[in-house]
Amino acid sequence: AAAAAVAAAAAAAAAATAAAAAAAAAAGTIPPWSGLSSLALLALDNNFLSGTLPPELGMGSLPADADLYFDLNLDLSGTIPASYAHFSTGQLHIAFTNISGCVPDGVVAYVTYNTAYCSHAEGSDALTLATLGVILSLVGASSEALQTWGGSPGFAGPNTPPRFCRVWAGISCDASYRVSGLNLTALGLDGQLSSLTFADISGLISPLDNLQVLVLSGLGLTGNLSDATGTGLDAFPKLQHLDISKSSAIVGQLPDRWAGLTDLRVLQVSGSGIGGTLPGSFASLQQLRELRAADCKGLTGSLPVEFGMLTNLEVLEITGSGITGTVPPEYADPTAVKAVRARSIAAAAAAKAAVAQREAQQALDDSAVMIGAVQPVAAAAAADTGRMHSKLSRRSSVSMLLGSMRTAHTPTRQHRLAAAQRAVAALSSSPADALGLTKLQRLLLSGNALQGQLPASYAKLKQLQVIDVSDNMLTGSLPTFYATLTRLTVLRLGRNRLQGQLAGPYVSLRQLAVLDVSSNQLTGSVPVNWDFLAGPDFKLQCLLLQGNVNELISAETKAVFEANSRKRMPPLGLAINDAGDPLCV
């Protein structure tokens, strides 16, 4: 009985204390205080306040670093006033309230509120990058540069770019603070993303529809580009630069669907595992400046004649592969390319019709599934409970996230059809009277299995500076008309089956620094006037003539060349028949 009496007394005391606390707790609305110029702390948490947050607090003379505590007021509702961007270095605590909406840009020092910034709605650039950061963390990626991805991705104050534009390594933004460049290679994650596929990354970042530069070189990514659902680039209509080089585990054929990336300027796939034939449909890439596919040993087939329509192409690099056939004369023959153009337009139109016919209407949901998945996983990772450190749990979490990404960001019918339409439009608008690779500067086709003769018509490509077709099976003679390529600095024709004699007119090539015709079937000797190539006003530094039917340069002629080279000021040096000399590399 005594114990019961004590318990009853304690309960009564607790109730009285609670009642007293309730009586002492503030109620009503928050006054529109605006003139408290010296206020450092406003603590109104754990009360019974109702109504909305007064915008006047951010419109008066309160300091920008004031700390505002409104936690645990369940009857507070409405949104955070835009004027609260004024509190750019203070703290805003509104956990356990019914306040909804977004956080005004500028309030980033500390916000106990689980939502996005107003300038970045769900599914936007900030949330996409935050999710990507979670994925990279879960797969164990680590680098000093990646540490810059910590903290809020949002704005730091009025008229200040978001943090991901200012601080995050590998991210670049345009004037409107949209992500325009994503360079994961810059994070120093060499080979660390082997548990992710190219489709994982491209699908995850698909909301970045303003993306212009995507660099994924040397990350260890895997995947098959031939998988119709795994290319994931239809969402990037503005893409100008794509680099998946040094990715030997990315295999398959370059997708025809990439023909819809009609703003593409640079396509770099060197050192990747791509194979199959090069798509002629890429003729629609009318803005393409560089196509680089060095050391892609899986490439087969011939060089597409359709590439002759790439009138802005400056660099064509396809080396060390299984490419066969001839060096297409169409690349310098506008008349021949006109017929190719007509076929290409018809093929692109047929492809567009096929896309329109087979693609079922899909619901477009940019973020709902992704957000539902990323929040619990991100929270668990941040809590560091230890569960996330297990390899199995990490793999499970990554699978859950990426599965949601694929569902939420599978390329839609609209994306695919728009890409096909862009390809048709680009081909149709290509200049029918100005075809051919007239802007080509570097033709790099060494280490393939090309046959036939070097097209004499390439003498029309007046912008050529480098021609390297060494290590093929080319026949015929040295094209005399190449002497008109006055911008030529490097001409590598070594290790082929060329016959005939050296061309005297090549003495007009004043800019020529490297000439390699070694290991062919040439006869005769160096033309009499070639010694000028080694003299003043000429640039020759490397001359490789060895390995032909007979010795093309005698010891006496070699001495004349070397004597002429010593007259040049400043000295340039000259290596003759020494392929290992740095001047020849």
UniProtKB/TrEMBL annotation:
Principal localization reads: membrane
An annotated GO cellular component: axoneme
Xref: InterPro entries: LRR_dom_sf (IPR032675)
Q: Which SUPFAM superfamilies match?
A: L domain-like (SSF52058)
Q: How does it sit in the membrane?
A: Single-pass membrane protein
Q: Which UniProt keywords apply?
A: Cell membrane, Glycoprotein, Leucine-rich repeat, Membrane, Receptor, Repeat, Signal, Transmembrane, Transmembrane helix
Q: Where in the cell is it found?
A: Cell membrane; Cytoplasm, Cytoskeleton, Cilium axoneme; Endomembrane system
* UniProt key word ATP-binding: no
- Signal peptide positions (record): 1-27
Keyword Glycoprotein found: yes
Name by which UniProt lists this protein: Leucine-rich repeat-containing N-terminal plant-type domain-containing protein
Provide the species name: Tetradesmus obliquus (Green alga)
The uppermost taxa in this organism's lineage are:
Eukaryota, Viridiplantae, Chlorophyta, core chlorophytes, Chlorophyceae
